[in-house]
Amino acid sequence: MIFETHCHIHSLAQFDVSDPQLTGADILSRARESGVGTVVVIGTDPEDWDTALAFAEAHDDVFAALAWHPNSTAEYRPGEIRRLQQALLHPKAIAVGETGLDLHWKSATLEQQSAALQDHLDLAASLSLPVIFHARDATPQLLDVLEPQPRRPYLFHCFSGDAADAARLDRLGGYIGIGGPLTYRKNEVLREIAQTYPRDRIVVETDSPYLSPEPVRGKPNEPANLTHILRRLSDLWDVTQAEAATITAENARRFFGLSGPVAAPDASAND
User: Fold this and answer.
1) Are 142 and 101 in contact (CB under 8 A)?
2) Alpha-carbon dihedral of residues 38, 179, 89, 51, nearest 10 degrees?
3) Model-level pTM?
């Protein structure tokens, strides 16, 4: 079964949809039909945490990762990390994330983002949870923060660094999330990284509703589109699409600490 490691289908306010009756459950149902088994939804601020946890509670094999997104950290104040600590005690909460740095939008200062980031790292260590990172136009800067720190299970969601960044993350034992950009015609750098990075530390994601892959680019993304990403990844790895699904699902289960074997993919995953 395919493992979706990063999406926002619990909060349709982020989707630009023409059907006002569309629900997260509808999107999840389409994902199931395409072979997606486990899904991780990402809560990006305290209000969104509640929505993500409620969605995870309502659906089997749906889990949540929670954090202050770096672009929300202008609102973050010292001591508020205790609110996140309480939320992460929920049985469906399996990771801290997405935290990190964003030097593209600049909706929070680097100092604000960095202070929140360190609190997130300390909390993850105290709870023995893996960490999912957002690093837009800030991969080297985030690696600068992580390299002197004790090692934790790290996942760079929607990895957008270069080969040098990938080598640094590899030395930290980090995982990389591969999504729609793998399919973009001009993204040879990411395809080269996908071929050379340790295969046992690559997972797949959509970041729905963002970063739709070819050939559905320009439409809201959703987990069902992971088949397009896996098709491209299987070509790069010279394996079947089913094998790529199994490898990345096993990697995701290991990263998130979810027990149990990955179910054998349906034959349609080879299509």
Assistant:
1) yes
2) -90
3) 0.94
